[in-house]
Request: fold
Amino acid sequence: MASSLDDFQVVSTIGTGSYGTCKKIRRKKDGKIMVWKEMDYGAMSEAEKQLLVSEVNLLRELKHRHIVRYYDRIIDRSRAVIYILMEYCQGGDLATVIARCRKDGTKVDEDFAWRILIQITLALKECHRRKNGKSILHRDLKPANIFLDRQQNVKLGDFGLARVLHHETSFAQTYVGTPYYMSPELVNNMSYNDKSDVWALGCLLYELCALHPPFIANNQTELNRKIRIGDYPRIPAKYCSELDRIVRRMLKVEVTTRPSINDILRDPIVARRYQQVE
Ligand SMILES: CNC(=O)c1c(C)[nH]c(/C=C2\C(=O)Nc3ccc(Cl)cc32)c1C
Reply:
């Protein structure tokens, strides 16, 4: 039976972004804690609304232990708002973890970094696995879209909708984030592909260790130049050379020499760590 707004009680607001607002909610019938993401589609064109519907339908297909579970959607046509109901991740997001480490002057444990690498790689493997010809590329991999459940398992969230939100006429086009994770092929106006997610994963791992992205600049032109060159300092010395080597593989400027998600999982170092993490 389809959900309705009256089936839920809002507990608190847990995040806001260019897309809308995230709220912690409780289902009245059984007390189950969930999250809904409220998105105002009133300013969207018909094409964008169609894209939003197809993206949300794709979310329904993604059932994986390292992907934030999609449960349902509620459409309030009177207010032109869609509510996307998803799994609650008690550990919050990785952006908050990194900000806390920066504030406290601490670093994340190496084991945690390996767990993030392996579990997000497994999530991306599921997304890149072709489903009736449709590959679900994430397009917006960043610390704020990586979540932790109560058992510190890692979950990839906030899917696909990036294509709608970054659409040229979309209300969310007021781009709030600097695209630190933009791949060289995107800087060169080539198409997004599954190795662009690998580049973004490399940037994410680098930022998790160094507490800042690999490529930083004061303006887009300078950032694009640095990304094209692909030059950046090693991750902090406290992290082993094996982790540094994996990050360097993912940050290969040339797409053809950059590993695929399956190449990463086949890497002997990752395979050995995989046994410890899963
Ligand atoms: C400080 N962060 C939090 O307290 C927090 C917690 C405990 N959960 C979240 C966010 C989500 C959460 O718990 N489940 C989610 C599913 C999709 C999206 Cl886009 C976000 C979430 C956040 C931002």
Notes: The first strand starts at residue 8 and ends at 17. DSSP finds ten helices and eight strands in the chain. Residues 167-176 have pLDDT under 50 and may be disordered. The radius of gyration is 19 Å.
